[in-house]
Amino acid sequence: MNEVTTFSATVSATIRDGILVVTIDNAPVNATSADVRSGLEKALAHADAAPGIRGVVITGAGKTFIGGADIREFGKPAIEPILPVVIEKIEASSKPVVAALNGAALGGGLELALACHYRIASPSAQVGLPEVKLGIVPGAGGTQRLPRLIGVPAAIELIASGRIAKAKEALSLCILDELAETDLVDAAIEAARRLTGASPRKTGELTAAPADPTEIDKASGKILAKARGQKAPAEAVRLVASSHRPLAAGLADERATFLTLRDSREAAALRHIFFAEREASKVAGLEGIDARPVVTIGICGLGLMGSGIAVAALGAGYTVIGLDQSLEAAQKGRQRIIGLLERNLASGRLDQAGFEAQATRLSVTVTDADLAPCDLVIEAVFDDLTVKIDLFRRLDKVVRPETILATNTSYLNPDEIAAATAHPERVLGLHFFSPAHVMRLLEVVRCKETALDVLATGLAVAKRLRKLPVVTGVTEGFIGNRIFSAYRREAEYLLEDGALPHEIDAALEDYGFPMGLFAVYDMAGLEIAWARRKRQAAIRDPSERYVEIADRLCEAGRLGQKSGRGWYAYPDGKRTIDPEVTAIIEAERAKRSIAARSFSQDEIQKRLLNAMAAEGEALLAEGIAARASDIDLVMINGYGFPAYKGGPMFAKS
Ligand code: 3HC
Question: Which domain of life is it from (predicted)?
């Protein structure tokens, strides 16, 4: 057996065929923490000094090559050697250094690989510089070495978007030199042996051809428009576009930009979200609780929501049985689902074999008993308590005792639905957001009696559906819609107090929301909320402030874009301020003797943010949400709150 040399707690090596095979073992993702950096530095020095060693292979233990710099070290004093220095030593090594990518090489991990003299990967590896998603730019040479390898436009596209590329694409882009057909490390040793003798090819010494401004605009235009309001993507474009400078100048600029951005509020917000996403599925009390196996999912109600859920479930490999009231509705649902799969096929998200496999796993029925094989049934029928209770009672009779029943209700009380069944412990809420095959957020509603393994199953299914699950207790509207109600209420108070819809929307869009609240209402249609307000009129607390402006709009037939007008007019489809709306608002103010005053953008933003955060605090106090960061995730992923502001709870902190 080869003798193992230990360079640090996380870096060790063996010598095979004269090649030093260095393995980074720093669970969970082999981040380049201080110990890894110092271990690598020592390993390189050892290789340089040992005459018997002819080359070096660097690889990772486990399923990741290197997940990047250690994000948990950000904000702490730097510990030497810093990553750029280690990377420069790799590139300067007199002996060939081969990166053997056993899995994802991200951020600093890819930057390290770029400085190696050869890159070979297993076919399942992935590469990317996702730093912009953390509000920073690559800080260890990525913006300078990647364009030298693949050209400025391709590097801009990857770095400014933070997109991850699979091994095959990375090979075709020339980020990788080779994909290992057989054993990765054997192939890497072979490559290192081939390279000995010749002077190693140094990425940093390649010439970066300057790109012309049209090419730069073409590569960056859409990405920067989408990243409106954020600094990192634009900085990434600037750095890559100027990579034809001497390497040292480019690296110095990159490092300075990285350090400035790393300490920004934007980066702190995005780091908060990175960790929040990973925390969200950790639920106290679920440690050691196994999820129930789920193979077949029943979906009741094949309207827009049910069809979206079906597409997500088919995509995750589940067998789906759809149930609807009539043969016609079931067939229509089936057609809609197949149509969505066809769209995935046309866009290349799905290949022909995948399409056929998914279509084969779908069946539809009108007979409750056909749901008998289901491990989980999700209902997405009309949001009416009587309808849902009736359905759950019927399901109780046809499914196995261990089958889990989930309601997708947005506003009803799932405890009442559960109580109507024979086994309330197997009921939970799975609140999808529309369109369900696209939106990542999934509120997992823990009812009074939900069993722990049922909750664990809800979370496991959510993960497999590639959703972002956030656990919520039972309250009107759960986490998201309850905060949204508080936010909407405050916006209506602002209207009555003197702001106009376009002023509120402009303040929200300036803050970073993709679209203002009133523009969103118009897009979604005003009538559902109107019907709800009418239903609630009888139980509304008369002492509570209630703004009637939206009711007046609906009474005037202004039901949103569908009716051609709502909070705005839409001549030629273009959102336009409508004096008729202003007149309605002014009339309501006059009726209540409210003297309108003007509001600055800052004031509007603060009032809306405060309203959201205050409702968030209430949800925490009531134990509906477990963590402030869960609330931030819900508002970012379900309601357009800008991620780079960290969510309403973070923004207020
Ligand atoms: N630093 C510190 N911790 C990290 C980390 C990192 N770069 N990447 C992941 N982790 C932690 C997670 O917080 C999580 O911790 P937990 O178990 O305590 O919750 C654990 O590793 C596992 O992470 P995931 O659940 O995300 O594991 P997956 O297997 O699903 O995904 C991954 C692995 C694809 C590597 C994913 O973790 C990932 O995308 N990581 C971040 C990659 C990234 O952004 N890298 C750039 C960092 S910045 C940088 O490199 C700057 C440089 O330019 C100088």
Answer: Bacteria
**Distance between CA atoms of residues 605 and 57, nearest Å:** 53
The hierarchical CATH code for the domain 5-266 is: 3.90.226.10
- Checking ipTM against 0.90, whether it exceeds it is yes
Cα(371)–Cα(221) distance, rounded to whole angstroms? 49
CATH code: domain 296-474 is: 3.40.50.720
Q: What is the pLDDT of residues 119-176, one digit of tens each?
A: 999 999 999 999 999 999 999 999 999 999 999 999 999 999 999 999 999 999 999 9
Average pLDDT of every residue of the chain: 96
Which helix (DSSP H) or strand (DSSP E) does residue 405 occupy?
A: strand 404-407
- Show me where the domains of the chain are located: 5-266, 296-474, 480-623
User: What is the pLDDT confidence band of residue 68, given thresholds at 50, 70 and 90?
Assistant: very high
- pLDDT for 1: 53
Q: In 93-176, which ranges are continuous DSSP H helix?
A: 108-115, 142-150, 152-161, 167-172
Class of domain 480-623: mainly alpha
Beta carbons within 8 Å of 29's beta carbon, 6+ residues apart: 64, 66, 67, 68, 104
Q: What is the pLDDT of residues 439-469, one digit of tens each?
A: 999 999 999 999 999 999 999 999 999 999 9
Distance 129 CA to ligand 1 centre (A): 12
Structure tokens at 12: 């060790």
Q: What is the mean pLDDT of residues 108-114?
A: 98
Residue the block writes with tokens 């003797």: 593
Site residues for ligand 1, CB cut-off 6 Å: 28-29, 31, 64, 67-72, 83, 104, 106-108, 111, 130-131, 134, 138-140, 142, 275, 278
For residues 36 and 32, what is the distance between their CA atoms, to the nearest angstrom?
A: 5
Crossing angle of helices 304-315/327-347, nearest 10°? 50
Q: How far is the CA of 29 from the centre of ligand 1 (A)?
A: 6
Residues 6+ apart with CB under 8 A from 630: 276, 279, 280, 470, 471, 472, 479
